[in-house]
Amino acid sequence: MKKLKLIEQIHQAGVVAVLRGDSPDEVVEIAKRAIEGGIKVIEVTMTVPFATEAITTLSKMYSSKDPHADNYAIIGAGTVLDAETARITILAGAEFVVSPGFDRDTIMLCNRYRIPVMPGAVTVHDIVASLELGVDVVKLFPGNLYSPSVIPSLKGPLPQANIMPTGGVNLDNLHEWIKAGAFAVGIGSDLTKDALKSGDFNLITEKARAYIHAFKEAQTSRK
Fold this sequence. Notes:
The protein is α/β, with parallel strands linked by helices. It has ten helices and nine strands. The strands form three sheets. A four-stranded parallel sheet has the order 3-2-1-9, sandwiched between helices. A three-stranded parallel sheet has the order 6-7-8, with helices on one face. It has a two-stranded parallel sheet with strand order 4-5. Pathway: Carbohydrate acid metabolism.
């Protein structure tokens, strides 16, 4: 039940912040600003030096399971390339695992511990292979290789597939992705690039608010 509830909470949240940075402290600060702006699903990528330190810190900081609580957020790990790394991130406190590609052993490891895993997919073969291993959400990556129309095209033969585009999603096209049937969307550098360039992390909070506003509007118009 915990796994299914978590997947539903990610779906309801709608926007996943994919965070990279030069240090755990920087990523923690970025995450805090994004959460303050309303993005409640945080993916700390394993390209961050000592990334598990950031995952542990954030997992302790946002420990509430109540979506209405101030200290509520879902903390996960991204850019997980193998089962060994997945296990390390789970022990560090990651509640979900995301990979840029399909790796059977990573999926099996996450299934063993009932942790949601979102492998990257580029082809129909990738999606079908993921579904066969019990994957609940497939990450369409890189999303900028496609237009939003790819989702209804894929869900024609595979209506059971939950697809989360990541890479190339921005404020201009988020509405199109949600309208097309995206399970959620992953937001990367567009959320943080202005703040990192200027040193003004308040810009992250402002951009996060804009993304949540755009998501809610898109969600409303889809009903």
